[in-house]
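Researcher: I'm preparing a figure for a lab meeting and need a structural model of a single chain. I don't have an experimental structure, so a prediction will have to do for now. The sequence is pasted below. Please return the structure as tokens so I can convert it later.
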Amino acid sequence: MKLYYHPVSTTCRPILLFAAESGIELQLQLVDLFTGEHLVEAYGAINPSRQVPVLEDGDFRLTESASILKYLADKVGSPAYPKDLRERAHVNEMMDWFNTGLYRDLGYGLVYPQVLPTFKRADEKVQAATVAWGREKSRNWLTILDRNLLGPRNPFVCGDSITLADYLGAAFLTVGEVIRLDYSPWPNVKRWLDRMKARPSWAKVNEGFYAHFVTPFANAPFEGL
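Model: Understood. Here is the structure written out token by token.
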């Protein structure tokens, strides 16, 4: 199987971590987001949306991080995507929650407008309002995750065992490290993130993210939470 990816990509990192922990061998094809390789016609023929990741399994091609995670988990029979109907539905629920709520406001509302020129608003007032909106909404999502979804007892977002929702959600949350977000006001979120970051494959899988996306902005001024 071939994965078109970039190591800093928030949507690629969950797949890389899950594959590493599940013993899934992937042929990695770098798509250089920093040089705009994803925007050229050759890559557009692979993914018209011109985004990563893309998975190729023979003549089968699949896009979207959550869908690729589910496909790989089913392919190897991973317990991280349980067969039980209700347990699986809960994993799907949490993956959708991260993808449509938290990541939208944290990533595209708060983080990316401050670090990526293509997401920065040209008008300063619009930029300030966008970041303020992203901050307020992100705080709300983090409070829900901390109090209602994780709580003081759950080691993982769906209960006692790691699931695909943890792989996806942890990558989405750690994008906040680019602008040095402090998650300590949400102790259950921080506890869960620390647990995910302590996993054996985390450091190796995420070294490109920290080297090329976190470290370069170490001294830049940002609006936080």
